[in-house]
Amino acid sequence: MGSFLSQQSAEALARLVRLDGEESAPPLERMRAIRAVLHHLDADPAALSSVRDALAAGSGWPEIAEAAGLKPTAAKWRWQGTDDEIAARLSAGRKRSIRPSSVPTDLPGRSVAEAAAQLGVSAQAVYLQVTRGRLISRTVELADGRSYKRVFLPGDALPSTAGTSAHSLDDSPEVPTNTDRIRTDR
């Protein structure tokens, strides 16, 4: 019986086995070899071939999904249909995953998640500190109606109350409060 793995998968697996036999194999090389095997096996046509053989032998999607460690819907999305249909689905998925985020990157202050990471606390702790007045937060409203909570840590520059900048305040007091709202025209 011949090999069912692609040449790239077989070579990556052989390299990992070689490293496994070397007592002095560098740890980063071992990690690279493990990741290469996973990468090649995930993309190997042997998986699709095995799925098609299992379907022809009478197995259903629940059994195929269980064998692959997936949910039936995910298994169908990955392997159901012709080669062209599968390629089209995968291509559409890649296009969606590379779209840029719709969240503006030039907002004042920091997001709650960024502030939490900077402080080494949870997002809930940031909200609690805002409520207690230890941190300043504002809601930034964009012209299209979207709004974002922004947190200003000690030392962060607060947006000016007058101005021609992209972010301007509407009738905000000189000393910011936790409920200030910033409007921006985009």
UniProtKB/TrEMBL annotation:
Region Disordered, residue ranges: 159-186
Protein's recorded name: Uncharacterized protein
Species for this entry: Cryobacterium arcticum
